[in-house]
From TrEMBL, chain A:
Localisation per UniProt entry: Nucleus
Key words of the record: Nucleus, Protein transport, Transport
Pfam family for this entry, one: NTF2
PROSITE patterns associated with the record: NTF2_DOMAIN
Gene Ontology biological process terms, A to Z: protein transport
Cellular component GO terms held in the UniProt record: nucleus
Residue span(s) of domain NTF2: 30-145
Phylogenetic classification of the source organism: Eukaryota, Metazoa, Ecdysozoa, Arthropoda, Hexapoda
The protein's name in its UniProt record: NTF2-related export protein
Automatic annotation (TrEMBL), chain B:
Domain TAP-C as annotated: residue spans: 577-631
Protein name: NTF2 domain-containing protein
UniProt domain NTF2: residue ranges: 390-536
Pfam families found in the cross-reference section: LRR_NXF1-5 (PF24048), NXF_NTF2 (PF22602), Tap-RNA_bind (PF09162), TAP_C (PF03943)
Compositional bias per record (Basic and acidic residues), positions renumbered to this chain: 22-39
Organism from which the protein derives: Trichogramma kaykai
Family to which this protein belongs: Belongs to the NXF family.
């Protein structure tokens, strides 16, 4: 019995295979570039936002779902002008079977956002981004400001 | 050129009280044209003394004269609201240009030497005494005096007979001045009635309960519900107050009292008329803050008051004023007509009517009013209704175990190859080191090796990190849940919310805000986590307040439906596999061998945290035999 456990320990002590390590490093690099591009577009070139999304992408903004990249573009256009500052950033490769053939990353951001001249709010946002041909596209974009809920 | 004769007759009339023939406001303006006459020697007769009246041309500066003259006319005409005053003003102004002769017996007036007229004089209350007034009816006295002061009109305040004498107050300095001349007139016409005038004397203001009640009645009488309008013009002369009570709105305490009643009863007031209340800037410092409360005020009348400077309106900028009346205030004379309009417009860009005159419609830029349009926040979003139940149950179970004190059963919530990482910006307070060292924020951690190390890989490693987080108590009422992506094969769930970090019995617990994103995949009959990204930060002050004020029940989840399939804590059975993993992990952490690690976990009922704690405690006390470390 102890032998069996020791075998498990050996399996476990091996932490990351080559493939996962490569994907993990790439996820970090991609997330850094993506984040920069995303918030620059959102703050300064909103009219280009739809290019970042897949046709069937979804944006969830403080619990409001917007589906399809054209509707997402419309939503961003209507929203008051913004100024985002990223404070923390994290990324992981997604290796579940459903996306086995598709390089896919989960990106998470926290930061501060200011609309017009109003005071800054803390926000959290996460993205599922996937490689579509030679372009990264957003599959799912989920945004929340940190607020005290009325309940 | 004034003719000497008419001047003389004017003077002779003026002798009685004529030394104070000018209002004090006028004196302020008249400067060099001052006739240096005193105004305090009451009742002296100068009718027979013939002052030397000379017209000193060198002192006559036409421009200045004209300015003062116009000022006086504008001000007085507007204040008394009657154009008939022009003639009188003209007359008086002319008189002004005749200075007191060098040998005049009149006392030199001191205000030329920098004396500032006091407030009472400015506000112009005066007391009128009628010796032996008991012999006359009130109507007789008032009618006689009103006939005399015509075309001025006055309304007596607090007419009282005390002993043999009667007295009352008037609010109009011009009337008081004129009344000083009445003795001679009455004498000439064979009346015996005497009039004594004391300028700058007003009755004390008392805010007794009786008066407060009276004021409430008067306010409700003056309020028009259909238009949400309140008429407070000439408030102190209100027929229900004037006889017995002195309620001048130019007294800050009175204005405060009255307006706070109004604010309480009709905060959505739309129109307010404060005309003719002797309001003036120095005494109305709080004026702006009093009126600011009425967020819906569209019409405001402040005409015929004593405001000298337009800046007192700065405080009212926020009001949605469409109509404003300011005419009859000294400030109006500071500006040319166009200037005046544009100064007022600067403060109230949307004003449509000023002093009863329609303003040309304002031309504004076509901007979107800068109103921020945000969609309202929804606590839960689920892209697919079917996924909702799964997600709800999953997170409810997860946090029940997470808060239970033994997080080990969560091992089964993770996929064999699960990935987990945490970011945090917590940099102070209890446990901060733990957050900082474990935080995998890519913009802070640039070293590839460290990045890899902080990405926990495999369920044991993940569980180990999860177990090391401080003990918690989550508030499900504060949770939000977004299920943004759902397929047969995977689901993305993002949960945010508040938890209490349990520090210990002595120090205070801390409220934290977390945001967790899971990718969950089907496994067996249930689901497990393939990816988890956790972010932990400070709760905002508002969130803390909300958290503290919540009802005591911790798990009264608004997210979760009727708690159906889920059971808690120890009832979640731990698989053999999980036990093996935990044993190996404990062995790795403590360096104890597998056997001892197994025993240790068994003793503490498979609570990994407890096992680690027990190990450290026993180790500290030297109770662990060497054989435990033999491998």
């Amino acid at each position: 019995m102890i032998d069996a456990w020791l075998k498990i320990k050996k399996d476990y002590s091996y932490t990351m295979d080559e493939d996962l390590r490569a994907k993990s490093d790439q996820a970090c690099r991609t997330a850094e570039e993506f984040t920069k591009l995303y918030y620059e577009s959102l703050d300064k070139r909103r009219y280009l936002m739809s290019r970042l999304y897949m046709d069937t992408a979804i944006l969830v903004w403080n619990g409001n779902g917007i589906e399809g990249k054209d509707k997402i573009q419309h939503f961003w256009t209507e929203l008051p002008a913004s100024d985002h500052t990223v404070i923390t950033l994290d990324a992981q490769p997604v290796t579940v079977p459903a996306v086995a053939n598709q390089l896919t990353f989960l990106v998470k951001i926290s930061g501060q956002v200011r609309y017009h001249e109003k005071s800054a709010k803390t926000f959290n946002q996460n993205f599922l981004i996937t490689a579509l041909g030679d372009k990264w596209k957003i599959v799912s974009d989920c945004f929340r400001t940190q607020e005290a809920l009325e309940s | 050129m004034p003719n000497k004769k008419s001047n003389k007759s004017f003077w002779s009339v003026g002798r009685g009280g004529g030394r104070s023939n000018k209002s004090h406001d006028e004196k302020r303006y008249s400067g060099e044209h001052d006739d240096r006459m005193g105004h305090s020697v009451e009742g002296s007769k100068f009718v027979h003394s013939k002052p030397r009246v000379s017209f000193k041309k060198q002192n006559f500066k036409p421009d200045k004269f004209r300015n003062n003259f116009l000022k006086n006319i504008d001000e007085d005409v507007l204040m008394s609201g009657s154009n008939n005053n022009v003639a009188r003003q003209l007359h008086r102004a002319r008189g002004k240009s005749f200075p007191r002769g060098r040998n005049s017996p009149l006392p030199r007036n001191d205000h030329r030497n920098g004396r500032v007229p006091n407030l009472h004089e400015l506000t112009g209350w005066s007391r009128i005494d009628i010796p032996y007034g008991e012999n006359y009816t009130k109507d007789f006295v008032i009618n006689s005096l009103n006939r005399f002061v015509a075309p001025l009109i006055f309304n007596p305040l607090m007419y009282k007979v005390e002993g043999k004498n009667a007295h009352f107050y008037v609010d109009d300095g011009d009337v008081a001045k004129k009344l000083k001349d009445s003795n001679e007139y009455f004498e000439r016409n064979g009346h015996k009635m005497q009039v004594r005038v004391k300028t700058g004397v007003e009755p004390p203001v008392r805010l007794s309960d009786e008066i407060k009640e009276k004021i409430k009645l008067v306010l409700s009488k003056r309020f028009i519900t259909s238009t949400m309008a309140l008429d407070l013009s000439k408030f102190h002369l209100d027929s229900d107050l004037v006889q017995d009570h002195f309620c001048p709105l130019n007294r800050p305490s009175m204005l405060d009292h009255v307006m706070s009643i109004v604010a309480e009863c009709t905060p959505d007031l739309q129109a307010l008329n404060l005309d003719s209340n002797k309001l003036n800037t120095p005494t109305q410092k709080g004026f702006g803050s009093i009126l600011k409360k009425f967020k819906n005020l569209k019409i405001l009348y402040l005409g015929d008051n004593k405001f000298r400077d337009i800046h007192f309106l700065n405080n009212l900028k926020e009001l949605p004023l469409e109509e404003l009346r300011l005419e009859g205030n000294p400030l109006c004379n500071k500006y040319l007509k166009e200037e005046y309009e544009s100064e007022v417009r600067k403060l109230f860009p949307k004003l449509l009517k000023l002093d009863g005159v329609q303003l040309p419609p304002p031309i504004l830029f076509d901007v979107d009013d800068q109103k921020l349009k945000y969609p309202p926040t929804n606590q839960v979003f689920v892209v697919n209704e079917q996924a909702k139940e799964i997600a709800k149950q999953f997170l409810e179970l997860y946090f029940k175990v997470f808060d239970s004190g033994n997080r080990s059963p969560l091992l089964d919530a993770y996929h064999e190859n699960a990935l987990y990482s945490m970011t945090s910006n917590i940099s102070q307070g209890p446990n901060y080191k733990q957050y900082i060292t474990e935080s995998r924020s890519l913009n802070r951690v640039s070293d590839l090796t460290k990045r890899r190390k902080l990405l926990k890989t495999g369920k044991i490693s993940v569980l180990s990190s999860i177990c090391e987080l401080p003990p918690t108590e989550h508030d499900l009422n504060s949770f939000t849940m977004d299920v943004s992506f759902v397929t047969e094969a995977m689901m993305i769930i993002t949960v945010t919310g508040l938890y209490k970090e349990l520090i210990g019995k002595i120090s205070k617990d801390i409220i934290r805000f977390f945001n967790r994103t899971w990718i969950i995949v089907p496994q067996g009959t249930g689901f497990c986590i393939a990816n988890e990204e956790l972010h932990i930060t400070y709760a905002s002050t508002q969130q803390e307040k909300k958290f503290m004020s919540r009802p005591a029940a911790v798990h009264s989840p608004s997210l979760a439906g009727p708690s159906s399939t889920v059971s808690v804590e120890n009832q979640v059975p731990l698989s053999e596999e999980a036990k093996q993993h935990m044993t190996v992990e404990l062995s790795a952490q403590t360096n104890m061998n597998i056997e001892w690690s197994f025993k240790c976990l068994q003793e503490v009922n498979w609570s990994f945290q407890t096992a680690v704690a027990a190990f450290h405690e026993a180790s500290r006390q030297g109770k662990i035999p060497q054989e435990a470390f033999n491998k």
